[in-house]
Each structure stands twice: as C-alpha cells, then as structure tokens.
Amino acid sequence: MAEQEQAAEKTLAISKIYVKDFSFESPQTPAVFKRSDWKPQTNLNLRSSHTVVENNVHEIVLTITVEAKDDDKTMFLVELQQAGLFEISGYEGEELSAIAGSFCPNILFPYAREAIATTIQKGGFPEFVLQPINFDALYMQSKQQAATAQAEAEATQAETH
Q1: What is the rounded distance in angstroms from the CA atom of residue 21 to the CA atom of residue 105?
Q2: Which domains does the chain have, with CATH numbers?
C-alpha cells in the first residue's frame, strides 16, 4: 500500500514543446550550389540545460548545433534550441537529474531532428538526417566526467593544504 501511494505521488507530463531559438546561416551561397565535388565535414554539438520555472514545472532546452565545412569554409550552420515544459513531481536527487538530463532530451530530439532536416533542405542543401542519439549514455558520461573533475579538484586542494 505504501508503495502505491508513493508511486501515485510521482508525475511526469509534457506541458509544452516549442522552439526557443533557431538560426540558419549559409554564407557561401549561391557559389556553393555551383560545385559538383562538394564533400563537407559535418560537426555536431549538443547540450541540454534544465531550469525550474515554478514549483513542479521544469524547462528543458536541447541545443543542437550542426556545421558543415568544406576547405575550412562554412557551407551552412544551424543552431536550434528545442525546448519543453515538463511537469515533474515526486522525483528528487538522482532520479530528477536523470529525467532532466536524459529522458526529457530524448523526448525533444525527434522535434529538433525534424526542424533541422527541414531547414537544411529548405536552404537548398541535400537531405540531412541526424542519427539517433543515446542520451542515457551521454548522461552517464557527463556524470563520470563531473565526478572525475571533482575528484581531481579535491586532490589538488588536498595537495595545497
């Protein structure tokens, strides 16, 4: 009975999904469209942030930057902040951190992928498909990096005393 009451207190719901900021640049147009040997290097950068808006309402922002370069010249640059408001209650500590750092970005990613692909295509470039991303693995990796950094900072601090 106690387990049922505890489970009933936990809620996780999507309130709103929206674009917070979106930018597309193509500084080499129209010359880039005349090239037939175009073989760009594509760089992908992604990060997420978490802000408590009020009580149980949390804003999660997934920021994705895609840059295509050829011979050190930027062919296109896209930056998107795909955001969502999530009602999250009954979760604390590690559970809340995992929801904000992995579960919610996983919900936002398909929206971001579609917006980026559509914009790049409307910019005159070939179809661009972002591959699936394992947000669970990225979250665990960021936790390990933070723990390592903290351990190094503590070791450095211990050495100076």
Answers
A1: 16
A2: 8-160 (3.10.420.10)
Do residues 83 and 108 touch, judged by C-beta distance below 8 A? yes
Q: Which of 63, 52, 131 is nearest to 99 (CA)?
A: 52
- Return the axis-axis angle of helices 135-160 and 104-122, rounded to nearest 10°: 110
Q: Which residues contact 61 (CB under 8 A, 6 or more apart)?
A: 20, 48, 49, 50, 51, 81, 82, 83
Q: Which residues of the chain have pLDDT under 50?
A: none
Single pTM value for the model: 0.83
The pLDDT, as a whole number, for residue 8 is: 56
For residue 2, what pLDDT is reported?
A: 55
Backbone torsions φ then ψ of 120, nearest 5 degrees: -65, -40
CA distance 18 to 51: 15
